[in-house]
Every structure is written in structure tokens, then in C-alpha cells.
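Entry type: protein chain
Record version: 2
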Amino acid sequence: MPRESKADLKKRTAGIIAALKKRYPHARTALNHSDPLELLVATMLSAQCTDERVNLVTRELFAKYKSAKDYAGAVQEQFEQEIKSTGFYHNKAKSIRAAAARIVEDFGGEVPDNMEALLTLPGVARKTANVVLGDAFGKQEGIVVDTHVIRLTGRLKLTRFKNNQGDRIEKDLLELVPRKDWTLFAHMLIHHGRQTCTARKPDCPGCLINKLCPWAGKV
């Protein structure tokens, strides 16, 4: 099979985006939040945890902790118990408290709205920063690369990189996806990965982009 040219790949990507927009025009994060701080905390809790579980935990957490100062002043052992069901609670509690302290000390208690500043927060890498910038601030600074995005972009052959190469996957996608669609693109793939292109039993016959997918039917 001939190698796909860059122009053809961009054209196919545009078709994928157009099709997904028809199905998921209002795709957004499933993490409940009402401000940037809540989204930051929820995203940090979501590592290796389902969004459903995070939303159950943050329902009580957000009622108790209202500001970065509140999180920074939380007692480590007590905070661990409050988020325990999300897994890896010791490190998550430590990172959230440290990030909150940095927000108080360096940013006047407000979550910063740029990539450079967000990456100075303990426990915050590009994936988390992209979520906060895209969904809390409406800024298109990158593309969230989570497990669904990794799986689908691999199957769609939009990148040759895999699981532990998120930064390289994102770099490939940034060259293919129009900047105005960066945030939406990731959310659409996540929705499609949950509903159709699942890890174990993808519904290739019922997939709206199967004609644009080199992997379709090759289960």
C-alpha cells in the first residue's frame, strides 16, 4: 500500500473532523467544574481514574474547598482520605496542595491562564495544562492526549507514535488539526472512543468515520 502523502493525510484528517463535528458538535470535558481551579483539581484527580468517580469525589470536595488557599492549607492525611477513591491519593493530595500553594504564592490565588505558568505548578504537565486552558479559558494552546486520543489516532494512522510518547503524538496532531479545533478535536475523539471505537470491541461497521480509517475492521 503506497505511503500517504502529507497533503492526503491533512485532507483525510479534515474529513474525520467534519464527520465527528456532525456527531459531537458540543463535545466537552466530562469533568464537572465551575471555574479554572475546580477544573485543575478535577483533572489532577482524573489520572488513572474515571471521570465518573472524580465527579463523585469533587461533589463534596468543591463544597468544602473554595479557593487555592483552602487547598494549600488542607491537612495532608485528611485530604488523602477525601480523595482516596480516585487512586494514587498520596501523590495526588501532595501535588494538589503544592500546586495550590504555588498559585497562592506566585499568582495571587488565581489559576494562571498560560502554558508557561501552568507548567510551573507541581504535578501539572502539558495534558493537564491543555485541559485547563482549553475548557476553562477557551484558549487553543494544544491538544489533550489521553488514552482515547492515543488509541484512536493510532488506529486512524494520524501518528506513528504510541502510548508513552504523548508529546510526539500531540506534535503530529498540531500539524494536522486546525488550531480553532484543537480543544474540540480531543473531546470528539474521547467521546467517540467511549461510544464507538472502544479498546476491546470497536464497532467498526457502525462507525461514522470507518471509510476514513485504515484500521477499520482489522480487529
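Comment: The first helix runs from residue 6 to 23.
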